[in-house]
Write a structure and sequence with these properties.
The complex is a heterotrimer of chains A (317), B (236) and C (240).
Chain A: H1 3-26, E1 52-55, H2 60-75, E2 80-83, H3 89-97, E3 103-107, H4 108-115, H5 125-138, E4 141-143, E5 153-157, H6 159-165, E6 179-183, H7 194-201, E7 206-210, H8 216-221, E8 227-231, E9 243-244, E10 257-262, H9 263-269, H10 271-282, H11 286-297, H12 303-313
Helix pairs in contact in A: 2-10, 2-12, 4-5
Chain B: H1 2-13, H2 15-50, H3 54-66, H4 69-80, H5 84-108, H6 112-120, H7 125-155, H8 168-172, H9 174-207, H10 210-218
Helix pairs in contact in B: 1-9, 2-5, 2-7, 3-5, 4-5, 5-7, 6-7, 7-9
Chain C: H1 19-22, H2 29-71, H3 76-88, H4 91-102, H5 106-130, H6 134-142, H7 147-177, H8 190-199, H9 202-230
Helix pairs in contact in C: 2-5, 2-7, 2-9, 3-5, 4-5, 5-7, 6-7, 7-9, 8-9
The chains are: A alpha/beta (317), B mainly alpha (236), C mainly alpha (240).
């Protein structure tokens, strides 16, 4: 091959390398996350305010909530960077405290037990919220008002299994030897998990299978586990395919959602920011969340589309 | 830095857990490799013996090497569901091409003079294969096995996202085990892969006739040369 | 008021997925065509971007290191040791280890991906340069070429096949590992793969997985063509 041609090719390779490198530096570090969302012009109190990073945890409902809050904020002119599917509560909390995200939607019970380390069983959701809010404020965060819907963990079994062992509530599980429970790994040390189940219901003879969230239904269907940790607003629970056991002693707690936001960010964004978020939270009833979760979880719509349709129907975008 | 020190403390404090996961890890890797070897070595050796199928045998390794591991596992989950079997199948698919190509090239590339001489002495095709070609091909076959072993052990870490168990269970669960745990398990995987590499390197040396060993030392091999003698394939 | 007083919302009809999707059939083409634009194509584009950036940076660094090591042989061992160490760390772990330093961002993903390319690109570039016959170098020096001219006009062109071979391996490595980057930043084909795993949604798993495989094979094929174009003398038929 001619020396000149070789040199040209080498130069082209180097040029390509440099161009790509420069292009990378030119674009925003995070690029566009796979989260779609629309921006519509209306009154724009958010224009000119600093960008907010919103994170979501690693399951369907969180993706939907993230899209709901994001799109509502963007409709009011705010700039939102969405970091979807960050991980479990512990990871999200870490991200919030280290400033990698400015806010994320948290469940009040999980916040108290897993984040604040407060295992106290509160008699009402108002008390739980008050305790959580106090803790958050001490650490520079604000808990915004709770949504009407609550999404607690629950233990689900197959209908046949429930009939076989006469299961109505979680308390009935204590009688089963070597109960196989499937749940996300963090369930093992949670008050709203194995720890609480052992302490309150005396369920100790357990074989624990750590499963990525979402795999538990498959594992249940395949007979790999006897009972699975599910969320009460999961779309898969539609239609009675699984029996959800009652939790009379409220081990799984109150789990309404409160967007937890860094207090300094909240102040910088102004009152319209908080109002927008509250306007969304206000319309999130249990039924609404279940329908949205089903649309994403069962009909496999994208969270962005589902959120947009819901917000449009309720005049929030 | 502190996390790094804590990683070793984690390993010391959690030997039972890590040992159990290591066994799971080895079971998964071992099963996949066993199947890959049982299928690929006879096939590769036969093809090499009759000097047929060179295009396929060489290119299957190029294709195989390019297969993204998580993508394969994900397709496997769709087709076979979550759990041990699916991940094992994906790992087998990843190991197969490496072993096949090496076995093929090993037997195909045996010095034809030796083969001619053997034929001249009246050996049948079968005897030539077992008494001449295989012994001479063994080192390169072993090289393929060695590469496949390290690759599979490294890739088996991903099994945890697909419902199977391995040392990856700890790596994937930073929430429970924190950064020292993640580091500790990562160190275990690296050590496991290293031990496997050393073991098979020793085995490879053991089956290499002295004469070939000297020749190898004189001709250094680059990555990217077919066949895959010294090549390391992708990490996971 | 806590919780907020529930204003009864209007819940639109989100539409039912096809029966294929609802039953979680093995592959629902309708879902793929419906979500190509909002899920699969963006993921593919991001994946290509992640790959190209990692390769560009990795090549730049490895190339510089190789030139330095070619000049000063003593550098080889420490470089191989460090890059080799990085190569051995399971990707899942390396991504997580970087997060406390560089956050949940594309930067973290890129740093990890670049680390995995360094060993291969460094070793191949160096081996390619080292593989230039001494006689050729002597001849060039005899013709009066300076060291720089020797490098750029003689050694590098002759090392090109080895460099491209290394690029080829590095490329498929990065494409494979970029799927694991989803644990740090929700981009690339790892995102639909992980989302599919979280729901055991077969169609998404197969679609994203197949796209990733296709991308790797296409990139590999492209580089093979480039390798052949640059080294016509290696296309020699095997003598039998």
């Amino acid at each position: 091959m001619k020396q000149g041609t070789l040199r040209t090719i080498l130069m082209l390779l180097v040029a390509l390398a440099l161009t790509t490198g420069l292009a990378a530096c030119g674009t925003r570090g995070d690029g566009k996350d796979l989260s779609g969302g629309s921006t519509q012009a209306s009154s724009q109190p958010g224009k000119g305010k600093p960008s907010v990073t919103l994170g979501t945890k690693n399951f369907t409902e969180q993706f939907v909530l993230g899209q709901l809050y994001k799109q509502a904020l963007e409709a009011k002119g705010f700039t939102v960077a969405l970091k979807q599917n960050i991980g479990s509560t512990e990871i999200a909390d870490k991200a919030l405290r280290s400033g990698q995200i400015d806010m994320y939607p948290e469940y009040i019970g999980i916040f108290n037990t897993a984040v604040a380390g407060d295992a106290k069983a509160y008699p009402s959701v108002e008390d739980a919220f008050a305790a959580g809010k106090a803790y958050a404020e001490r650490h520079g965060f604000t808990l915004l008002p709770l949504t009407p819907f609550t999404n607690t963990d629950a233990l689900a079994v197959l209908p046949d299994y429930a009939r076989q062992h006469n299961l109505r509530s979680v308390a009935d599980l204590a009688a089963i030897r070597g109960l196989r429970i499937g749940a996300p790994p963090e369930f093992r040390q949670r008050e709203t998990g194995l720890v609480g189940l052992a302490r309150v219901y005396g369920i100790r003879d357990v074989t624990f299978s750590p499963l990525t969230i979402g795999l538990q239904y498959q594992a249940l269907d395949d007979g790999k586990i006897d009972t699975a940790d599910v969320f009460t607003t999961d779309g898969q629970l539609e239609g009675g395919r699984y029996v959800v056991l009652d939790d009379p002693k409220n081990v799984f707690g109150f789990q309404n959602v409160s967007p937890i936001v860094s207090t300094s960010v909240l102040q910088k964004e102004g009152p319209a920011f908080e109002d927008t978020l509250n306007a969304v939270s206000r319309v999130l009833t249990t039924e609404a969340m279940q329908r949205m979760n089903a649309a994403v979880g069962i009909d496999k719509q994208s969270p962005a589309d589902v959120a947009q349709q819901f917000l449009q129907a309720n005049g929030l975008v | 830095m502190q996390d790094f020190v804590d990683a070793f403390r984690f390993i010391a404090d959690n030997t039972a857990l890590l040992w159990s996961l290591t066994l799971d890890h080895l079971a998964l890797s071992g099963a996949a490799l066993a199947i890959a070897l049982v299928l690929a070595i006879p096939l590769g050796v036969t093809l090499g013996h009759v000097h047929r199928g060179s295009f396929a045998a060489i290119n299957v390794s190029n294709v195989g090497r390019a297969l993204p591991s998580l993508a394969l596992i994900s397709i496997g989950v769709a087709v076979l569901g979550i759990g041990f079997v699916n991940v094992m199948v994906a790992l087998t698919v990843l190991a197969f091409p490496i072993v096949l190509t090496n076995a093929y090239v090993a037997v195909d590339g045996v010095d034809q003079d030796a083969v001619e001489a053997a034929r001249g002495m009246g050996m049948t095709g079968r005897e030539v294969l077992w008494k001449v070609e295989l012994p001479l091909a063994l080192p390169l076959i072993f090289a393929g096995v060695r590469t496949a072993v390290v690759y599979v052990i490294a890739t088996a870490t991903l099994a945890s996202v697909a419902g199977a168990h391995s040392l990856g269970d700890v790596i994937v669960d930073q929430a429970t085990y924190r950064l020292p745990g993640v580091l500790g398990a990562a160190i275990c995987v690296a050590v496991l892969a290293l031990l496997a590499e050393l073991l098979f390197a020793a085995l490879q040396r053991a089956v290499t006739p002295r004469a070939l060993r000297l020749e190898e030392r004189r001709a250094p091999v680059m990555l990217g040369d077919p066949p895959l003698t010294k090549e390391r394939t992708a990490p996971t | 008021m806590i919780p907020l007083a529930a204003a009864q919302p209007v819940i639109p009809d989100f539409g039912r997925g096809s029966s294929c999707v609802r039953e979680n059939g093995t592959f629902c083409w309708d879902w793929v065509s419906a979500h190509w634009g909002d899920t699969l194509r963006p993921a593919l584009v991001q994946h290509v971007a992640l790959t190209l950036i990692a390769l560009a940076a990795g090549f730049a660094i490895a190339f510089a290191l190789a030139l330095a090591a070619h000049r000063r042989g003593r550098l080889t061992t420490p470089v191989v040791l460090v890059t080799g160490l990085l190569y051995t760390i399971p990707s899942l772990a390396l991504f997580q280890l970087l997060v406390p330093f560089t956050g949940l961002s594309r930067t973290t993903a890129e740093i990890a991906l670049v680390s995995y390319t360094l060993l291969i690109l460094f070793r191949n570039t160096l081996a390619g340069l080292a593989g230039v016959p001494e006689e050729v170098r002597d001849a060039a020096r005899g013709m009066g070429l300076t060291r720089r001219q020797l490098l750029w006009r003689v050694e590098l062109p002759l090392a090109l096949p080895a460099i491209v071979a290394g690029l080829r391996i590095a490329t498929v490595t990065v494409i494979s590992l970029a799927t694991v980057a989803v644990f740090v930043v929700n981009q690339g084909l790892g995102a639909p793969i992980y989302a599919g795993l979280q729901q055991t949604f077969k169609t998404e798993l197969i679609a994203a997985g197949a796209l990733c495989v296709a991308l790797a094979l296409a990139a590999d094929g492209l580089l093979v063509l480039m390798q052949r174009a640059l080294t016509p003398w290696t296309r020699v038929a095997r003598s039998r």
